[in-house]
Design a protein that fits this description.
The complex is a heterodimer of chains A (498) and B (182).
Chain A lengths: L3 E4 L3 H13 L3 E7 L13 E5 L12 H10 L4 E3 L9 H9 L3 E2 L4 H8 L1 H10 L15 H11 L3 E5 L9 E3 L5 H16 L4 E5 L5 E9 L5 E13 L2 E7 L6 H18 L3 E9 L5 E7 L6 H8 L3 H9 L16 E8 L1 E2 L5 E2 L2 E2 L2 E3 L6 E5 L6 E2 L6 E9 L2 H14 L1 E3 L5 H9 L1 H4 L7 H4 L9 H24 L11 H9 L1
Parallel strand pairs in A: 1-2, 1-4, 2-3, 4-5
Antiparallel strand pairs in A: 6-7, 6-8, 9-10, 9-12, 10-11, 11-14, 12-13, 14-21, 15-16, 17-20, 18-22, 19-21
Chain B lengths: L8 E2 L3 E6 L4 E5 L7 E2 L2 E2 L3 E6 L2 E6 L2 E11 L2 E6 L2 E9 H6 L12 E5 L4 E6 L5 E3 L4 E7 L2 E6 L4 E6 L6 E2 L4 E7 L3
Antiparallel strand pairs in B: 1-13, 2-3, 2-10, 3-4, 4-5, 6-7, 7-8, 8-9, 9-10, 11-18, 12-14, 12-17, 13-16, 14-15, 16-18
Classes of the chains: A alpha+beta (498), B mainly beta (182).
Chain lengths: 498, 182
């Protein structure tokens, strides 16, 4: 009997996992949410479970109890959580296991540990990973604060140990102002949280976001599949990712990769995981956190390594031993992923909902499209704005940038605005071309005028004019004294010849 | 007379598209040739039209345009995913509103006067016609020679002050043109 794999997710990742299930000869089971009853992923599944979530505030994908009870009812063997939703919820993973359902991911305990930043960091220290220099405990007077900040170097960030929401937070540029800032931040914290204790950490002004993909099995084998750079973000969410990173030398890749593997082995990690680093302008890097799920940007790693990560997640969950050997994993060429979000880059990335009248994706053998929508789909306000991903492979970085740009020009969507023009602008910007962009790029460099160009503007003027002219000329022809026999022969001829 | 003029008389096909940032396009859509934008014929192919969607080919590239919104003479068009806002006017309404250029001054009427005394033997254009700079408007015979009198700018012929067969004095007003140049 075929195994039954339930996908507790939607959108493009549900289709991606369906493909992986079929590769393993399994049946893909999905939920039909009433919040999105005509979703594209439903067309690919072998079985659809109706979920009555219309009246609920949270969709089926966030309802752990309901997912598991429906899974049991439908004799599901495995559950893949995808990304987001319950993918990093240890209680959900535990609930699956408690009910005899194989959860595709690491152990619930590790999901829990990695979700708690302080626990994850102390485990990272034990495995010898570098952390952003900072005070181990709270500091409660300005002189001690100055002494510590002078030691780790400026700029530093002061954070209220009881704090949050930016209160009691200061970025200090130099030694001369540390004591004054410490006092004011501490007073603020005291007033707000009745606790004036402060943490001091080195502040990275223009950091890059790097992450290493690892894959481990239940036998204790772990390999890394190189890094991804995900520095291009807006509102702390990634928009463009690439693999490898131009900021990582082969020596660093080896060093950081070994570090990632050592960490994963030390904590007994299995399944796919991502170890995130933050990198300073001088090339020094620090452990940030570990993600215990498959990530949105996993295809760039798949493109350059040829390894099917979702397939391996399933195989590892079944207890298979990794046949991947570190020495066999080679980085081949370069890959870029652009996220297609229905957001308006001309208006602070505000989300767009409604109908996709028409969507057209570029087709080339070096382009991979992961989409959760098609022409006629509806983008609802219930889920996030990412509708598709365009992933392009090239021989090297300049080649992949050129190919990606061409692919983005080939893409079209009628009905809603997307992040695609933004991605085009980024790909042509010198900061991206020379790979110096950081996580602050959108805030410090980007402005919506950068999306415009003179050719597009002229064509826009022409379209607006043709539209206006056809009405204007028709209107004029109704007047008895004015003779006009065609609204526009240039237009009509082209239409007939088309 | 081998010159081909971009403006083909019918002034009702000339429009002004003004962007909110002040940028202005003069767009002429002739009956049976390619569009003329700011006086230059552009090799733009019209590929398809469907509802509020146009596609063009230009410089080897495909341009997808979508009419996003329309309110009277204001339109928002999306090209390659980016929106551009325009207000549109026919040449006549544009002239009626006063052709205010960037410096805020009214664009002059360009009057054409007889360069020498003579007789009008032919008039090629009519009032309201769009005329190109250097395009002959009428023929003036003087000392047994026929002289073509041409437009001194691109514009619309507002008034023709003379008739065929009429004799004119030197410096007599022949034609008034509203320039569309900037």
């Amino acid at each position: 009997m075929k195994k039954r794999l339930l996908i507790a997710n939607r959108g493009e990742i549900a289709i991606r996992i369906t493909r992986a299930a079929h590769k393993q000869g399994m049946l893909a089971v999905v939920f039909q949410s009433e919040k999105e009853p005509d979703a594209l992923y439903l067309n690919f599944a072998d079985e659809i479970i109706q979920a009555s979530d219309a009246a609920n505030e949270k969709p089926i994908f966030l309802d752990a109890e309901l997912i598991v009870s429906l899974a049991l009812e439908h004799n599901v063997d495995l559950i893949h959580p995808g990304y987001g939703f319950l993918s990093e919820n240890p209680d959900f993973a535990q609930l699956c296991l408690d009910n005899g359902i194989n959860f595709i991911g690491p152990s619930p305990q590790l999901i829990r540990d990695m979700g708690l930043k302080t626990v994850a960091k102390s485990m990272a220290i034990k495995a010898g990973l570098p952390l952003v220099p900072g005070s181990d405990g709270a500091i409660n007077d300005a002189a001690a604060g100055k002494e510590f900040a002078d030691k780790i170097g400026y700029p530093v960030i002061l954070k209220a140990s009881a704090g949050g929401g930016g209160r009691g937070m200061r970025i200090v540029e130099k030694s001369e102002t540390i004591e004054r800032n410490f006092k004011s931040a501490s007073d603020e914290a005291l007033a707000a949280f009745s606790n004036g204790d402060m943490f001091i950490e080195k502040y990275l002004q223009n950091p890059k976001h790097l992450e290493f993909q690892i894959m481990g099995d239940k036998q204790g084998n772990v390999v890394h599949l190189g890094e991804r750079e995900c520095s291009l973000q807006r509102k702390h969410q990634k928009i463009i990712e690439e693999a490898p990173s131009a900021s990582v030398t082969p020596q660093m890749r080896k060093e950081m990769g070994e570090m990632a593997v050592r960490f994963a082995k030390a904590i007994g990690y299995y399944s796919a995981g991502t170890i995130e680093f933050i990198m300073d302008e001088d090339g020094s890097y620090y452990f940030m956190e570990m993600n215990t799920r498959i990530q949105v940007e996993h295809p760039v790693t798949e493109m350059v390594t040829g390894v099917d990560l979702v397939d391996w997640q399933i195989r590892v969950a079944l207890g298979e031993e990794l046949t991947l050997k570190q020495e066999d994993i080679k980085i081949n060429g370069w890959a870029i992923e652009c996220r297609v979000n229905t957001e308006d880059p001309q208006n602070r990335f505000s989300p767009q909902t409604g109908f996709i009248d028409k969507i057209y994706f570029p087709k080339k053998d070096f382009i991979r499209i992961e989409t959760g929508v098609q022409s006629g789909s509806v983008v609802t306000p219930y889920f996030d704005s990412m509708i598709a991903k365009i992933i392009v492979h090239g021989e090297n970085r300049p080649d992949v940038i050129e190919k990606t740009l061409a692919a983005l020009y080939d893409f079209s969507l009628i009905g809603l605005k997307t992040t695609v023009p933004f991605c085009r602008t980024v790909l042509q910007h010198p900061d991206f071309v020379d790979a110096t962009y950081t996580t602050r790029w959108v805030d410090s460099v980007y402005s919506p005028e950068m999306l415009e160009n003179e050719e597009d503007e002229m064509i826009a003027a022409l379209s607006a004019t043709i539209m206006y002219a056809s009405e204007y000329l028709q209107l004029s022809s109704d007047l008895p004294t004015y003779k006009n026999d065609a609204l526009n022969v240039w237009v009509l001829n082209k239409r007939l010849n088309y | 007379m081998g010159t081909t003029y971009v403006y083909k008389r019918d002034a009702s096909r000339l429009f002004i598209a003004l962007r909110e940032n002040g940028k202005r396009f003069k767009i002429y859509i002739p009956k049976d040739s390619k569009p003329v934008i700011d006086g230059v014929e552009q090799d733009i192919d019209f590929i398809e039209q469907e509802d509020f969607h146009y596609a063009f080919d230009w410089k080897g590239k495909r341009f997808h345009c979508e009419l996003v919104s329309r309110d009277q003479n204001k339109a928002v068009v999306k090209v390659n995913g980016v929106e551009y806002k325009f207000s549109l006017e026919s040449l006549f309404s544009y002239i009626r509103h006063g052709m205010i250029d960037k410096d805020g001054k009214q664009i002059d009427e360009n009057n054409i006067v007889a360069p020498m005394p003579g007789k009008i033997v032919d008039i090629f254009l009519s009032e309201g016609d769009l005329v190109n700079e250097g395009e002959p408007i009428l023929s003036l015979e003087a000392m047994k020679m026929q002289n073509e009198i041409s437009a001194n700018c691109n514009g619309v012929i507002r008034k023709i002050r003379v008739q065929t067969g009429q004799s004119v004095m030197k410096d007599e007003l022949l034609v008034e043109i509203s320039s569309i140049d900037e």
